[in-house]
Amino acid sequence: MTSTSKSAALGVSRAANLPKRFYKDVTIKHEEGGAASLLLDGKPVRTPGKSHLIFPTRALAEAAADEWRAQQERIDPSTMPLTKLANSAIDGVRGHEQTVIDDILKYASLSSPIARSTGLEVTSRR
């Protein structure tokens, strides 16, 4: 088997393991404070951790909705970076914000462009 045919076989195998698309319509629901959530056939989208998938702005929700609309016969998370990022933030960070901040500070430079451009006041706890 050539490397091209192996790659093609792996792609077919991977696609067969992806969940089938189960929805037709993707819409946006306005939430409190300017946030927005996604609805698939009128039902709220949930994260893998079963939380509601809510974006802080309508613009982000619209961009994520486009990811869901672009799915074909199978749902491929690798083509949905905004949804994956939101899932990670909601399931992995919410409720653990200080721990995540502390971990970031261990590795982030206090003079990083992000800190300078946002005007963040970063303090070390050493």
What's the topology here?
Elements: H1 3-17, E1 26-30, E2 36-40, E3 43-44, E4 54-55, H2 58-69, H3 81-93, H4 97-107, H5 113-118
Antiparallel strand pairs: 1-2, 2-3, 2-4
What does this structure look like?
The chain is an alpha+beta fold and 126 residues long. The protein folds into two domains: 13-94, ATP12-like; 96-126, no CATH class. The protein contains five helices and four strands. The protein has helices spanning 3-17, 58-69, 81-93, 97-107, 113-118; strands at residues 26-30, 36-40, 43-44, 54-55. Strands 1, 2, 3 and 4 form a four-stranded antiparallel sheet that branches. Strand 2 (36-40) and strand 3 (43-44) form a beta hairpin. The mean pLDDT is 85.
Specify the helix fraction band.
Answer: 40-55%
Q: Helix and strand succession?
A: HEEEEHHHH
Low-confidence stretches: none
CATH topology of the largest domain: ATP12-like
First CA to last CA: what distance? 56 Å
Q: What count of structural domains?
A: 2
CATH superfamily annotation of the largest domain = ATP12-like
Structural class: alpha+beta
Output mean pLDDT. 85
CATH architectural category of the largest domain: 2-Layer Sandwich
Q: What is the overall silhouette?
A: globular
CATH class of the largest domain, named Alpha Beta
Radius of gyration: 19 Å
Number of strands: 4
Q: Percent of residues in beta strands?
A: 5-15%
What is the overall number of helices?
Answer: 5
Largest sheet: 4 strands, antiparallel
